Amino acid sequence: MSKAPSTNATRLLKAAEVPFTEHLYRYEDKGGTAVSARELGVPEHAVIKTLVFEDDAKRPFLILMHGDREVSVKELARQIGARSVQPCRPEIADKHSGYQVGGTSPFGTKKAMPLYAEATIFDLERIWINGGAKGFLVGLDPSVLKTLLKAEPVRVALA
Length: 159
Known about the structure:
Blueprint (H helix, E strand, L loop, with lengths): L7 H8 L5 E4 L7 H9 L6 E9 L4 E7 L3 E2 L1 H8 L4 E3 L2 H8 L17 E4 L8 E7 L2 E5 L2 H5 L4 E3 L2 E2 L1
Parallel strand pairs: 2-7, 3-6, 6-9
Antiparallel strand pairs: 1-8, 2-3, 2-5, 4-10, 7-8
């Protein structure tokens, strides 16, 4: 396959001297983490999706979730002190993150936003997360989410 792209995410990781691996795969529209996990031969639970949400005041934030789990919006709102939360529409998410939906990375976003991560992500030895382009994941230690991005752990996963 072709060479991995240089993105805001990979430039930030390199500048911060974070060790990571680059993984290209054949992107399938609406395929989600099941496709990337299958293509890379890794557990879908270790493929982390980056979701752009907004609270009831339309303030954007990121939530990181296991590929095989969904976010409890009710529990997420409760844990972050909002009346309600919802995913941003794709065009709004793109505007906030600077990435296209399907290629959203928590690293190197256009706008600085609060970042929440499902707490059990930090129990994993290694995660695969979007590197800033469709069909491109980076593999790294999940502790980077706390040290570099100051991710706040929450427990909001639905089985």
